[in-house]
């Protein structure tokens, strides 16, 4: 199964404070372990929400909101995509992560829907549309 | 439903391969190493519910296992086995055995896992034994899980593993990653085992025990582990690329009724872009320094041609034909020749395909192989020879044992008219 592992934002990450050298080194080692275990598929850090935008939907209307956004603890500062056997294994790997922030922080694990979950729900036309868009993204 | 037990099991699944690898290196005996690891796990199960999971569970388990090994010195029959192991070390190093044990424990365990993979895939073992032992030791699957995955009885698998361990013990393994000339052949065996595991998962059909399709994920994981440890080996990346690319199509190759969906008719929107991206990245590393490609890299490159094509009509058949030319040299087989002929017919027209197919008519292995007359039928029809095409499809229909395929071939025969 695939899981997205979300590093939640803190006041520090939202202030754009970059990780210390020690933390970068520890994170590097941790990432290496994930690669060595064959579970790491992708991952990256995100800039603070001050660099982000939101598009709010209400019926036909679209309004664009500029960051930064409030409710810091609900924001995301980075993510990984892992392929693991089950949630218990994902939890164990997350426990081994160095604290990604200088202060208290939180990492959230969310299993992905697999394509099979949608097998009956998507008509071929809709699925083709999704595919064309992804083809363009993939270059 | 015991959360602490689930946690301990998850920890153990993560740590077990490295633990067994480190212990096997130390005691030179896989069965004993597994026994010591199992004892450490049992100790954890009794202690961790009270103490909590230690911060470095891997180190904790290794210490516990090592304590058991030393306790074992006082007990038979483990006594003799540990003695024998230490005697072997003494012969080699002429050192105090405590120091030998310490040194073995402090070694970099990354390479030990690689050594364990090479041991499990040792050519002295049968293919079936290599597959079972690799899944047991590196994948951490239980004997029961392996039995279910291979549609075999648990006793058969258990016996296979016991025999394999004995065979390895008898072969006097050094538990080292082979170097030089030996390495190429031994690596070939490792890659073969991983690809066998993958193909067993790939062959699983809808409605079967879920453990079977999960073998594909298991093989991908093994491939990634190997690629992380042997980044300088092009064919390791070749195999990984092949598995990632083939996996990208797992969801689309079967129709809701369970029948196979040919590549050209699959819904490409549902191909897994993440796996395609990873497969293409691995393929980029799969070329040898001299620019050549091994059989796995060539097959991955073939899979990549399909993955890159946005629609079936965009497929670069000329490139595919050239890759099959190379594969026919690197991995000669009648089935590769047949696929090569089909690729040539797609790239250069039905006449080119027929010329190659006619050369295969005398190959004994293909005498009763339905895809050969089916490919001929397709080329003949495209060449404007419907009567011969119908006869070829009908012949193919009599050869296949698959009812769905037979229906398909008879429909094609009927569509030839006449």
Q: What this model shows, in words?
A:
The complex is a heterodimer of chains A (139) and B (418). Chain A is α+β, with helices and mostly antiparallel strands. Chain A is built from 4 helices and 6 strands. Chain A is globular. With 418 residues, chain B is mainly α. Chain B has a domain at 1-107. Chain A binds chain B through residues 35-39, 41-42, 81, 83, 85-86, 88-89, 91-93, 95, 114-116, 119, 124, 127-132, 134-135, 137-138, and chain B through 6-7, 9-11, 13-14, 53, 110, 214, 217, 220-225, 228-229, 251, 256, 267-274, 276-278, 310.
What is the topological layout?
The complex is a heterodimer of chains A (139) and B (418).
Chain A: E1 2-8, H1 11-14, H2 21-36, E2 40-45, E3 53-58, E4 61-66, E5 76-83, H3 87-95, E6 107-111, H4 124-138
Antiparallel strand pairs in A: 1-5, 1-6, 2-5, 3-4
Chain B: H1 3-27, H2 30-51, H3 57-72, H4 78-93, H5 97-106, H6 109-120, H7 127-137, H8 143-149, H9 154-170, H10 180-202, H11 214-229, H12 234-247, H13 273-284, H14 295-308, H15 317-330, H16 334-348, H17 350-360, H18 371-382, H19 386-399, H20 403-415
Could you name the key traits of this structure?
heterodimer, A: alpha+beta, Alpha-Beta Plaits, two-stranded antiparallel sheet, 4 helices, 6 strands, B: 418 residues, mainly alpha, 20 helices, 0% strand
């Amino acid at each position: 199964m695939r899981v997205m592992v979300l590093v939640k934002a803190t006041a520090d990450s939202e202030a754009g404070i970059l990780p210390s050298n020690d933390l970068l080194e520890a994170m590097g080692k941790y990432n290496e372990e994930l690669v060595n275990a064959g579970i790491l598929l992708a991952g990256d850090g995100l800039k603070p929400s001050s660099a982000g935008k939101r598009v709010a939907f209400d019926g036909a209307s679209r309004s664009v909101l500029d960051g930064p956004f409030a409710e810091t603890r609900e924001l995301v500062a980075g993510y990984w995509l892992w392929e693991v056997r089950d949630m218990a294994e994902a939890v164990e790997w997350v426990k081994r992560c160095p604290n990604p922030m200088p202060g208290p922080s939180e990492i959230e694990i969310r299993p992905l829907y697999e394509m099979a979950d949608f097998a009956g729900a998507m008509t071929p036309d809709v699925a083709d549309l999704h595919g064309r868009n992804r083809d363009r993204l993939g270059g | 439903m015991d959360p602490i037990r689930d946690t301990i099991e998850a920890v153990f699944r993560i740590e077990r391969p490295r633990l067994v690898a480190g212990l096997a290196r130390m005691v030179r005996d896989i069965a004993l190493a597994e026994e010591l690891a199992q004892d450490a796990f049992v100790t954890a199960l009794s202690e961790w519910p009270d103490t909590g999971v230690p911060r470095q569970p891997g180190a904790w388990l290794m210490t516990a296992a090592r304590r058991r090994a030393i306790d074992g010195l006082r007990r038979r029959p483990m006594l003799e086995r540990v003695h024998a192991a230490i005697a072997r070390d003494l012969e080699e190093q002429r050192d105090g055995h405590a120091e030998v044990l310490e040194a073995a424990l402090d070694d970099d365990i990354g390479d030990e896992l690689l050594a364990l993979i090479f041991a499990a895939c040792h050519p002295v073992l049968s293919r079936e034994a290599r597959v079972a032992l690799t899944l047991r030791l590196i994948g951490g699957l239980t004997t029961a899980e392996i039995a279910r995955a291979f549609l075999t009885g648990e006793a058969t698998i258990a016996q296979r593993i016991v025999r394999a361990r004995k065979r390895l013990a008898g072969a006097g393994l050094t538990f080292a990653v082979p170097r030089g000339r030996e390495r190429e052949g031994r690596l070939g065996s490792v890659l073969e085992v991983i690809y066998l595991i993958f193909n067993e998962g790939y062959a699983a059909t809808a409605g079967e025990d879920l453990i079977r399709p999960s073998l594909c994920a298991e093989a991908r994981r093994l491939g990634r582990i190997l690629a992380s440890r042997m980044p300088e080996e092009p064919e390791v990346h070749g195999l990984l690329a092949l598995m990632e690319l083939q996996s990208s199509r797992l969801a689309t190759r079967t129709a809701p009724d369970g029948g196979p969906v040919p590549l050209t008719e699959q819904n490409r929107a549902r191909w897994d872009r993440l796996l395609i991206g990873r497969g293409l990245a691995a393929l980029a590393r799969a070329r040898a320094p001299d620019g050549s490609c091994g059989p796995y890299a060539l097959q991955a490159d073939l899979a990549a041609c399909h993955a890159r094509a946005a629609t079936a009509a965009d497929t670069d058949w000329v490139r595919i034909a050239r890759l099959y030319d190379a594969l026919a040299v690197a991995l000669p087989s009648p089935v590769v020749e047949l696929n090569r002929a089909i690729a040539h017919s797609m790239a250069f027209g039905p006449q080119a395909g027929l010329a190659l197919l006619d050369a295969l008519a005398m190959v004994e292995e293909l005498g009763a192989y339905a895809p050969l007359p089916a490919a001929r039928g397709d080329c003949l029809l495209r060449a404007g020879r419907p009567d011969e095409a119908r006869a070829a499809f009908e012949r193919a229909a009599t050869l296949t044992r698959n009812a769905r395929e037979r229906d398909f071939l008879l429909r094609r025969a009927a569509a030839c008219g006449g």
